Amino acid sequence: MKNIIDILTGLVSEAFGAAGFDPALGAVTVSGRPELCHFQCNGALPAAKIYKKPPMEIAGSVISHLLNRPEFREVSAAAPGFINITLSDGYIVSILNEMSRDPYLGVPQTGSGKTVVIDYGGPNVAKPLHIGHLRSAVIGESVKRTARALGYNAIGDVHFGDWGTPYGLTIAEYKVRHPDWACFKDDFDPAVDIIPEINEDEMNEIYPFASAKSKEDEEFKVASRQTVVDLQNRKPGIFDLWKKIKDTSVQSVKEIYDRLSVDFDYWYGESDSDGYTAELIERLTEKGLLHESEGAQVVDVSEEGDKISVPPVIVKKSDGSSIYATFDLATIIQREKDFHPDGIWYLTDKRQNLHFTQVFRCAKKAGLVPENTDLRHLGFGTMSGPDGKPFKTRDGGVMTLKSFIEMVDGAALEKLKDSEYIAGDKTEAAHTIGMAALKFGDMQNQPTKDYIFDLDKFLSFDGKTGTYLLYTVTRINSILKKSGTGYEQTPEIGGIFSDGERTLALAIIMSCQSYEKTCSDLAPSALCDSAYQIASAFSGFYRDNRILTEEDPDKKNSWLGLSSLTRRAMIKLLDCLGIGTVENM
Fold first, then answer.
1. Reduced to 3 states, what is the DSSP secondary structure of residue 273?
2. DSSP 2
3. 411-414: long-range contacts (C-beta < 8 A, 24 or more apart)?
4. For the segment 216-235, what is each residue's pLDDT rounded down to a tens digit?
């Protein structure tokens, strides 16, 4: 099913062509003045410069080919040359019923037949997830779900940081603390010797300790560098301990992601790309791209017209070791071999914008992927506390993501404690509501912008909040249950009987646009806006009409059909935001 903008653009483009003008001028957009019209086309303005005619004359010529169409209640010209379009109620109803019957609920399947790999999460082995990992997880999960809703084969990869200097430091410190472990013996035999169970608390404490230690203890620093070499050469014992550490980390991280309803198809790490680094060097060398600079092996990626300096990509450091760019480039080779993706989309904080500019340019220059592969990076902003400063624990430390989720759950449970609508244990309902508040509060913002996390505001039942959206769904649940209408039933919508219905209907129809915009911008804020517009419109519709006590059976059934479609549209939007719903609140 096409979205309404594409349908209208097609009709208006035909009219431009029939009037003797370039059909490309017929692009339709949502009206910025909904009190005047639903949609508009501004093509007559640029057409006036091309064809040397007054824009109002051009608009009039185009409109003459749109009159009397059943899709339109009114098409008119407004100075200096806008074409204003208002849909007919009959056409609106036909779209709603078509959406209701469509297995994709009107979401256009523009991604059908295409594969995208979405790289998000970015945790590190031997480190607990902290609050800085939140945005990548929730935004990336939403983009992945939205891509799937559009028909893409969307593959989520967590891309663990698990290879390099941090793990040399970590393992070196384990050796200091546990020199008797068999894995540190030269005669370690993986078939016989056992790696002890890893204590998670100690594991999470070791890396920051070892990192600080290496800045003061030169001998330890040298030892950790040798450990990196041993690890990357897969030395028995060292490599086996690393695997044990990684397994422990993955299990811990999965538990936190599960609480966020974030799920990955692959748990690959930098170590999985290590086997492709030799091929990377070979391909860069064959292309004549690799050269030495101050002992390092680099690739120049600056381009004419760059507004900022884009330095060369360092592929091998002067000591021969690999760095992030090496792993990311090798991972691109791996993904091209495994998935042949049409696109690879990355979500990290915006401090990595330059890094990905370098990596993408190098990948295209080296032919690691076809030229038309969509390599994209979303660099998101930071989340601050209500004081505008980075979110911290009470003692000033970095808050773990586990503690943060527990804090949100606790606040939501406090909000629900007096609710008479939720029987029994309210813990899971509180978690669902807390995550709705948390995620919507984050994703309603443009992701590239910094934002302030205000839990009291996000948990409010009023305003643009996830809590308000869940409340709207529960209100519709109540209407349908009281009317005897099952959630799977889709009563036919028979007509438009009020302005409130029309507003709600258009909000539902326009929501289909938000899925494409989310993937084109890697910004779920479009989904948030649509969900809120629908919820607000339903509130007005519900306020103005007595659905359950309506005596006209045709009107009542039509309203129940519209309520049911509203619920389905909202749940789909919320699901693509990674937000679950509750039955009652």
1. helix
2. -
3. 411/455, 411/456, 411/459, 412/437, 412/459
4. 999 999 999 999 989 988 99
- What's the CA gap between 584 and 433, in Å, rounded? 11
CB within 8 Å of 307: residues ≥ 6 apart: none
Q: Do 259 and 325 meet the contact criterion of CB atoms below 8 Å apart?
A: no
Is residue 296 a contact partner of residue 318, using CB atoms and an 8 Å limit? yes
- In tens, the pLDDT along 123-171 reads 998 888 999 999 999 999 999 999 999 999 999 999 999 988 889 999 9
The residue behind tokens 């220059």 is 365
pTM given for the model? 0.94
State the average pLDDT for the chain: 94
Read off the DSSP letter of residue 389: S
Choice between 386 and 367, residue whose per-residue pLDDT is larger: 367
Contacts of 374 (CB under 8 A, 6+ apart): 116, 342, 343, 344, 345
CA distance 547 to 144: 37
Q: Is the pLDDT of residue 502 over 80?
A: yes
> What domains lie within the chain, and their CATH numbers?
4-87 (3.30.1360.70), 165-247 (no CATH), 401-576 (1.10.730.10)
> What does the pLDDT look like over 34-52, one tens digit per residue?
889 999 999 999 999 999 9
